[in-house]
Amino acid sequence: MSKVKRALSSLRLSEAGPGPTQIDISPFAGSEDLNDLEHTLAVPKKIDITHQVSQLEVMCISVPEAGHLVPTVQFAMALAQRKHKVQLVTCSWAEPKMGAKCREAGCDFVGLAPHVRSAESGEGKAAEFMARGQMMAMFEYYDKEMHEPLRKLVSEKRPDVIVADFITPCAWRVADEFGVAVMINMPCPLKLLSFFSPLTSLISRILRRWSLDRTEYTAMTRMFAAITGLQYKRPCIMHTFFGLESPEPVLPNITITGSTAPRHSGVVYTTSMPPFNTWLEWVRSERLKIVYVTMGSMQVLSDHQVKGLYEGLSRIPDVAVAWSLKEDQQKFLPCGELQDLPKKFFVNSWMPQAEALNLPEVAVVVTHCGWGGLNETICAGKPIAATPFRADQPLNAAAAKRQGMCEIIDTKTMSAAEVERTVTRVLNNPSYSLSAQKMQSALLKTGGAVRCAEAVEDLAENGCSELLCEAPTLAQELAPVGKPIFYVAFGAALAWFVPFLIPALQSYTMSCMRLLGRTRRC
User: Fold this and answer.
1) How far apart are CA 142 and CA 125, in angstroms?
2) One domain, residues 170 and 205
């Protein structure tokens, strides 16, 4: 394999008649005379760089829920487009949704644990866990059921690299068993890493001991134990970007790539959904703006939340609403049936989201701020009215608000008045759109799925053992906190003790002096 230095300082191509093109290191067309500063610099021509690597066999492994599976699929597709042999490995029930896309991109879909049913099916353990809001228990269930068939698959295929979603511990455990290089795929913000340190993990377990039922608490404890320290001990890819997150030091084994979602160029005027396109024609004829509403694949809205959103959005003038709302939650709409909704509402159980977000009429996005959905919205340059519920969603919404592109709706109340007030503020204040476009510009500077593929190629070629270290222990994490506490406690104790100490010392001194005086007289 050959290496290419990607940074070529001040290269300029000059053509000197017939013959091969020459590369001149000087930025001033072959001269370093100071008089050349008076002339405008020539625009450098584009050059092609070829980087040859060995063809790899890669397994990309994830639990089958969209927030983790979709970025893993995008990662796998990027590797396949670079002519690597790629298998996407997850539960079999995801094949109808993902199988055709994988095969079209040139990677194989491998389904495991065919007896496992999806949470959305309403049947099986995953559905039971989801109905009770036990998300960690659901993820752990998927992971356990995938473990043994994955072990058999890896023993037969022996891939060069395994790309493991960070909520799928069976992937790196099997990789370690068979000596396969592993890359951890983390579609989440850098801030989330702090939750997987020994100290934060301990605090989280203590705080949640009484707020979670036993099943969910036990699953969370085991999952956190598996994840804690990954950011130190494994090469990691993080789908985040600076701009949304404040600049901070990053460990050398962590590669920042930005979102793996496709980067759309320009606006979209028609989508792949004909009924939606028909509705869009009416919206344009009425010259309305669109509020696009999406809550992802896993969030279940309650009766009052659906009604709060509907009533709040219906009060906003000159606005139409495109809403991706699951079928079982549509019954909470005040009108009951979709055909009875006002014309300004287009509600469907599925929407072509990547296309819809890039419509010029979409002015505000109401989203739960899951990591994938947030990055899709940023990629389209749209401002947000956020409805964060759980996991990393509050962190994501807070980051977007700090950057000026978002306002947050309280999901506990989700009142119509608050929905109306928040969406109207984002809609009417152009600063939110300007901030969203600034975030879009920062995101588009990142390498995305292509950078992910390059990181895997680099891992296979060079390894990264020199970049890894052991995670800090609980004692090491407590030391920086413990020392100031000790000094403060010591100072407080000293301040308390000194008033008693001084009289005692004075009394002792006087006694010594009297004793000394008696001794001299004798």
Assistant:
1) 9
2) yes
Question: What percent of the chain is helix, strand and coil (3-state, nearest 5)?
Answer: 50, 15, 35
Alpha helices in 228-336 (DSSP H): 230-233, 274-286, 303-314
The structure's pTM equals 0.80
Please list, in sequence order, all residues whose beta carbon lies within 8 angstroms of the beta carbon of residue 386, skipping any fewer than 6 positions away: 366, 367, 368, 369, 393, 396, 397, 400, 401, 406, 407, 408, 409
Return the structure tokens found at 11: 């290269």
50-67 pLDDT, tens digit per residue, is 888 899 999 999 999 888
Percent of the chain scoring above 70 in pLDDT: 89
Residue 500 belongs to some domain of the structure: no
The 8 Å CB, 24+ separation contacts for 115-121 are 115/145, 116/91, 116/92, 116/141, 116/142, 116/145, 117/93, 118/64, 118/91, 118/93, 118/94, 119/65, 119/298, 120/297, 121/93
| Final residue before a domain boundary, out of 19, 35, 50 | 50
Per-residue pLDDT reduced to its tens digit, 172-196: 999 999 999 999 999 999 888 887 7
What are the distances in angstroms from CA 448 to CA 127, 186, 238? 33, 13, 10
Average pLDDT over residues 384-398: 91
Q: Span 390-413, mean pLDDT? A: 91
pLDDT given at position 29: 41
12-14/22-24 β-pairing = antiparallel
Residues 18 and 107 in one domain: no
- The backbone region for 505, taken as left when phi is positive above 0, alpha when psi lies in -120 to 50, beta otherwise, is alpha
Closest by CA to 334, choosing from 371, 304, 296, is 304
Are residues 209 and 158 both part of a single domain? Answer: yes
Same domain, 224 and 144: yes
- The number of residues in the chain equals 522
pLDDT at 6: 39
φ, ψ of residue 358 in degrees (nearest 5): -95, 5
Alpha-carbon gap, residue 132 to 215, rounded angstroms: 10
Residue type, 364: V
Burial of 81: CB neighbours in 10 Å, binned 0-12, 13-18, 19+ = middle
CA–CA distance, 128 with 409 (Å, rounded to integer): 29
pLDDT digits (tens, 9 = 90+) for 145-182: 999 999 999 999 999 999 999 999 999 999 999 999 99
